Amino acid sequence: MSDLFSKFDALIAEREGLLATGVRDPFAIVMQEVKSPTLAVIDGRDTILLGTYNYMGMTFDPDVIAAGEEALRKFGAGTTGSRVLNGTYQGHKECEDALKDFYGMEHAMVFSTGYQANLGMVSTLAGKGDFIILDADSHASIYDGCYLGNADIVRFKHNSAEDLEKRLRRLPPEAGKLVILEGVYSMLGDIAPLKELVAIAKAHGAMVLVDEAHGMGFFGEHGRGVYEAAGVADDVDFVVGTFSKSVGTVGGFCVSNHPKFEILRLVCRPYTFTASLPPAVVACAATSIRKLMHAQDKRARLWDMSRKLHGGLVARGFRLATATPESAIVSVLMPDQETTVRMWQALLELGVYVNMSRPPATPAGVFLLRCSLCAEHSAEQLETVLERFATAGAVTGLFRQAAE
Amino acid sequence: MSDRAVVYARIIELIEPLNLKKVPLAEATSFAGDLEMDSLTVMDLVASMEDEWDIVMPLNLLPDLETIGQVADAVTKLVHK
């Protein structure tokens, strides 16, 4: 009998090899206590959180917590049902209303996670004989949505308007087409040239879906995302997003002005065949979304921090994935896996948590230490982070290696 | 040379720079098994073949295309479509 796990042997060996060098497992962090959106206890030590996507710091907002507590008491711990059966409570409708107001759109559908929102929208919108045209660096949930559906999948070079145009031109003019873009790409923290890309998609008769998971809250006048900042709101057919970043809880959604949008509730399997979000979660989300509409100060602060972190790291000799700060994600380029893990661990031991990213999650085989900022980070925390990066770089010999 | 032979020869040229372990390339050489290509490399190779022949090779075809010979067949068919 062959062991079904033998296909994982190479990965198991690679991990064992890495851990044998004495480093700890970067994918097995436990937060023993969470004191604020920017501070947690890891290994008994106060640790500055610089890799949580908690951009607007809403996880501990008093109004958000109060709404969640009230819903938990009034509606219970869970719905035990699908949105289309017994799983839609008043709170789910209020959450969808908050999204419609936030985005200024006619329709909103709340999914149980952001992953499921992409899985559902991508697999359901494009069917047999239709084409999905997606950016090569798309998130795993978008690729998985493609594989769940029956459309033909065409991939274009990351953020390349020229390559998108070339690939659209080869498709039959009469075929249904869905172009999938993201506002912010979470690995490198770069943003998409949506003005150019959306114009090309529309010129070829495609519908456009933009994932604003990492753009919601602080791009554009109303914080709707990169598409709003790029001035292409009228040409975007679907916006997908998540509650697990700026909103500060968990869940996913799609908003749209398409007149037939509501039918998706019956045909979108990742929406229909799963339990809905617990009442406390949708209550937290609705409250948070409404507060984000008026979060201009936090937005300005987040941008200020992003510029300071980016500039501070460059000044200390680090190589960054983007020449200028494009989003609230600042990614530090690392030479190889071992150095990345050693640097990550040195930072952790100094009390700074960042994300470690490696291929195949990253594009072009790069290793990254990804920092994401929170509007609640204090100026002192940011200064401490920069000092600790410099110390960790010295301890691990990162700069010596780079100079060789 | 037949159309297929021309296509096959050009595919070999496109694969060669990605063939880091210098595996002998033949009709039955497989991308995942013999060439040990990861999915990203395979997708980039598909893009270069699409541009070479101005065709559309949807990614959902890939699970059925395991060997160089199978890819040559698929490209030849798409070129004549």
Layout: helices, strands, pairs:
The complex is a heterodimer of chains A (404) and B (81).
Chain A: H1 9-20, E1 33-36, E2 39-42, E3 45-49, H2 62-75, H3 90-103, E4 107-111, H4 114-125, E5 131-135, H5 140-148, E6 152-156, H6 161-169, E7 177-182, E8 184-185, E9 190-191, H7 194-203, E10 207-211, H8 226-229, E11 238-242, E12 252-256, H9 264-267, H10 269-272, H11 279-292, H12 296-315, E13 329-334, H13 337-349, E14 352-353, E15 355-357, E16 367-372, H14 379-395, H15 398-403
Parallel strand pairs in A: 3-14, 5-6, 5-7, 7-10, 10-11
Antiparallel strand pairs in A: 1-2, 2-3, 4-12, 8-9, 11-12, 13-16, 15-16
Helix pairs in contact in A: 2-11, 3-11, 4-5, 6-7, 12-14, 13-14
Chain B: H1 3-15, H2 39-53, H3 68-80
Helix pairs in contact in B: 1-3
Structural summary, described in words:
With 404 residues, chain A is α/β, with parallel strands linked by helices. Chain A has 2 domains: 21-56 and 296-403, Aspartate Aminotransferase, domain 1 (Alpha-Beta Complex), CATH 3.90.1150; 60-292, Type I PLP-dependent aspartate aminotransferase-like (Major domain) (Aspartate Aminotransferase, domain 2). Helix content of chain A is 40%, strand content 17%. Chain A contains 15 helices and 16 strands. In chain A, helix 3 runs parallel beside helix 11 (279-292) and helix 6 (161-169) runs parallel beside helix 7 (194-203). The radius of gyration of chain A is 22 Å and the shape is globular. Chain A starts with 8 loop residues before the first helix and ends with a helix. Chain B is an all-alpha fold. Chain B has a single domain (3-80), classed as Non-ribosomal Peptide Synthetase Peptidyl Carrier Protein, Chain A. In chain B, helix 1 (3-15) packs across helix 3. The radius of gyration of chain B is 12 Å and the shape is globular. Chain B starts with a helix and ends with a helix. The A-B interface holds A 131, 136, 146-147, 151-155, 157, 166-167, 170-171, 359-360, 363, 365 and B 38-40, 43, 46-47, 50-51, 54-56, 58-60.
